[in-house]
Amino acid sequence: MKDGDVILIEAPKLSPAERLYVPQILQGMSVTLRHMFARKATLQYPEQKRVPRVENYRGVHRLNRDEQGRVACVACFMCETICPAHCIHIEGAEAPWPDREKYPIQFDIDELRCIYCGMCEEACPVDAIELTPIYDPVGLTREEMIYDKEKLLEVYDRTKGMKPRKNPKITGYPETGNREQRSGETKGD
Amino acid sequence: MFDWLTTQPGFSVLLMVTMMVVILTSVAYCIYFERKISAWIQDRIGPNRVGPRGLLQPIADGLKFLLKEDITPAGADRPIFMLAPMIIFVVSLIGFAVIPWGGRITFANGNSVILQVASLDVGLLYLLAVASLGVYGVALGGWASNNKYSFFGGMRAAAQMLSYEIPLGLGILVVVLTSGELRLEHIVAGQQAGAWNLLLHPLAFGMVVVGALAESNRMPFDLAEAEQELVGGYHTEYSSMKFALFFLAEYAHMITSSALLVALFLGGWELVPFGWWLALHVPGLGWLGWINDSTHWSAGLVRLGMVYGKICAFIFLYMWVRWTLPRFRYDQLMRLAWRALVPMGLGLVILVGVLVYLDRAISFWAPLGNLVVVLLVWRMLSLRPVRVTGRQAGLPAV
């Protein structure tokens, strides 16, 4: 290190009036007093909540319903396979409906184990499982936080308005996940 | 029995019990107000869930402290470990014995009592002596924890408290010289007949406020706790009720020093300075004289309320200052005490001595003299060159 590399920075010289420090203290105290009577920035949760998160926020899962109100999942097990935390447990069975082969009779997601990565949403070929903007699920026990099929469908019923389904058609497999489909445009059908 | 209560000994016992309850509750609610005021200053709302507007929060805190596990570190000096928080809590509470809460009241059966637990003719000296014993609690607490950092914090706290005893004592000496008494109720009566000492000696008032802040280890003088540096300083190793005692002792010390300030500088229970003049000369303000002089029990209660209200105002001031100012560094703190406050204190004592000799103690010469002392010491300090030491000695002069 050469002498030229060192730059001496002098502290700014205080005038004699400033060196007494009392005016600065009083000025600081007036600032604090002003803040004491200003509007507070606190939100009283849970009575007041923030503006809901953006639509593609990765919160609690939901199982979508199709237009007829049936569960949209076809029990293909893709989400269970890809889940990094192994928190999805599905049991498939023969569907009672003519236009579908399988459907899940048991669909459990352990919301406490989930890492909210969204891989299940990406993997689903029929856009049955989606992550909603609900960021604050609460429960009193661990068992309560394992959401079963009914609970997940109920989440759907609650968040239908908050976040519409990506692709309403369930049987149009090649066009899943494509947002333009919602407005009716198709690409090379 | 009711007759015994109207005599001074009985009434003192009653007042002592009542004020203990009031003050211990105030100390507990200091916690609540500290959190609320600090929250408001920081643009947030403090605790508001426990009870209406959070008013039951101290009870929740107290329960928490009682139910926590009480840990004594291995190798700690057990008797002293247990004793240290008790020392500091007790000494800050027994100082209330000599505070004048109200003047004289007369009962229906002819007895008259003063609203003061003990009227000692060395009352002020007793209060100072007792408050100084708090240093033992802090230093012993740091030592007994068997922890280097606690010990360090305890030593720093002891040095700080000792250094600030001197400006505190010199400021109080100014008041004693002005009124010629050590009896607190006579000092209060003297202020009500003359002028508040706050107006006569603003510099002494400032010095006693600073000394009181430093005595109770309160920001900006709380480097003994210095959460960012020493974890907890002298109270790191304490848990549950012992920690609560240290914590509450800080607030109790604040209340004691506020009470002392009210009695010494703000004329006790008088509503406005020069109240005696206003009551005589301004029509419609005769009730000011009634508050001061009446011996009816309702007037006594009003006076008690006035003193308590002023104490609350001081506590608000302390909390306001805490959440505004950054902490002093240790050398800055020592420099402030020894190089700024002690010369000012000595100058003030000389000034007041001269004024008392010339029989001009209560006049406009007093605040003028205060101003002169401030200017003198300030110019002297500014003109002295700052010595560079150590590594800075090799650098070119700034």
Task: Please give a structural write-up.
Chain A has 189 residues and is of the alpha+beta class. Chain A has a domain at 61-177: 2-Layer Sandwich (Alpha-Beta Plaits), CATH 3.30.70.3270. Chain A is built from five helices and five strands; from the N terminus they run ααβαββαββα. Chain A has helices at residues 16-19, 22-36, 78-82, 119-123, 149-159; strands at residues 61-63, 88-94, 102-110, 129-131, 146-147. In chain A, a hairpin with a 7-residue loop joins β2 and β3 (102-110). Chain A is elongated. Chain B is mainly alpha-helical. Chain B has a domain at 67-335. Chain B is 67% helix and 2% strand. In chain B, strands 1-2 form a two-stranded antiparallel sheet. Chain B is globular and about 65 Å long.
The CATH class label of the domain at 61-177 in chain A is Alpha Beta
What is the element string of chain B, with H for helices and E for strands?
HHHHEEHHHHHHHHHHHHH
Let me know the largest β-sheet of chain A.
3 strands, antiparallel
Range of helix content of chain B = 55-70%
Mean pLDDT of chain A: 80
Q: The biggest beta sheet of chain B, please? A: 2 strands, antiparallel
Q: CATH topology of the domain at 61-177 in chain A, which one? A: Alpha-Beta Plaits
Count of discrete alpha- or pi-helical segments spanning 4 or more residues of chain B: 17
Summary tags:
heterodimer; A: 189 residues; alpha+beta; Alpha-Beta Plaits; three-stranded antiparallel sheet; two-stranded antiparallel ribbon; 5 helices; 5 strands; elongated; B: 398 residues; mainly alpha; 2 strands; globular
SSE blueprint:
The complex is a heterodimer of chains A (189) and B (398).
Chain A: H1 16-19, H2 22-36, E1 61-63, H3 78-82, E2 88-94, E3 102-110, H4 119-123, E4 129-131, E5 146-147, H5 149-159
Antiparallel strand pairs in A: 1-4, 2-3, 3-5
Chain B: H1 2-5, H2 8-41, H3 57-67, H4 78-94, E1 104-106, E2 112-114, H5 123-132, H6 134-144, H7 148-179, H8 184-193, H9 197-200, H10 202-215, H11 227-230, H12 240-265, H13 275-281, H14 286-293, H15 297-322, H16 330-357, H17 365-383
Antiparallel strand pairs in B: 1-2
